[in-house]
Design brief:
By secondary structure, this protein is mainly α. The protein has 2 domains: 69 residues, Orthogonal Bundle (Arc Repressor Mutant, subunit A); 138 residues, GntR ligand-binding domain-like (Four Helix Bundle (Hemerythrin (Met), subunit A), Up-down Bundle). Helices cover 71% and strands 4% of the residues. The protein contains 11 helices and 3 strands; from the N terminus they run H-E-H-H-E-E-H-H-H-H-H-H-H-H. Strands 1-3-2 form a 3-stranded antiparallel β-sheet. Helix 4 packs across helix 6 and helix 5 packs antiparallel against helix 6. The longest helix has 25 residues. The radius of gyration is 19 Å and the shape is globular.
């Protein structure tokens, strides 16, 4: 269950921090399946559970609306999104487009700091895979692609990608089951790291392109 939070008197930046904290807890509950697809999110119930105001809950839900994990329906309230076949296809296509562009741009402007960041993430992913910590590996997978786009230096690309964050995280959680050996995920990312770090923009683009496509096809097939 979502843990109960201690009641706080907050204002200003502290209030915003609490809203983000509650939003993160709700995001985790959605991604872990505790809050099921299509579930209605009742502000009063959540406020009681977290021991905060309904206003704080309302603000936290707006974060998740922006990420695409929560849908607001007029006169009905907030609901966890449902994931249909068309959604999976659209998320996959959009991810590939954004991440392949990010990989191409990152390879063109990579520096030593960027190389160290990507190599550190790849090593952290390898450690998580070897220890069987699949939840950690999924988080690092997302962090990896976000870091590539940050290295690209394209601010608007980062803005667009951030709006897809919640749906991307959900996609990664749903497709994790297709990798019986988590080290296979490392083998997918290692050539991409090498291409970006070596400044090979076209190889980076091709390796990142269709990165999620096979997973999307497997996920759609499993839903039939």
């Amino acid at each position: 269950m979502i843990g109960r939070q201690s009641k706080k008197t907050v204002s200003g930046d502290t209030h915003a921090s609490l809203e983000a904290e509650i939003g993160a807890a709700l995001r985790t509950a959605i991604l872990d399946g505790e809050l099921a697809p299509g579930a209605r999110l009742i502000e009063l119930e959540l406020a009681t559970r977290f021991n905060v105001s309904q206003g704080t809950i309302r603000a936290a839900l707006k974060f998740l609306q922006a990420e695409g994990l929560v849908e607001y329906r007029p006169r009905r309230g907030n609901f966890v999104i449902t994931v249909e076949k068309a959604d999976i296809h659209e998320i996959s296509v959009l991810r590939d487009a954004l991440e392949s562009l990010g990989a191409r741009l990152a390879a063109k402007r990579i520096d030593d700091n960027g190389r160290r960041a990507l190599e550190a993430l790849l090593q952290a992913m390898r450690t998580a895979a070897q220890s069987g910590n699949r939840a950690r590996l999924t988080e690092l997978d997302f962090d990896f692609h976000r870091t590539v786009i940050e290295i690209s230096g394209h601010r608007r690309l980062m803005d667009v990608y951030s709006r897809l964050e919640g749906q991307t995280r959900m996609f990664l959680r749903l497709t994790d089951k297709f990798y019986q050996n988590p080290l296979d995920i490392i083998e997918l990312h290692e050539p991409l790291v090498n291409a970006i770090c070596n400044g090979d923009a076209e190889a980076a683009f091709q390796l990142a392109n269709r990165h999620a496509d096979a997973d999307a096809e497997d996920l759609i097939e499993s839903m039939r």
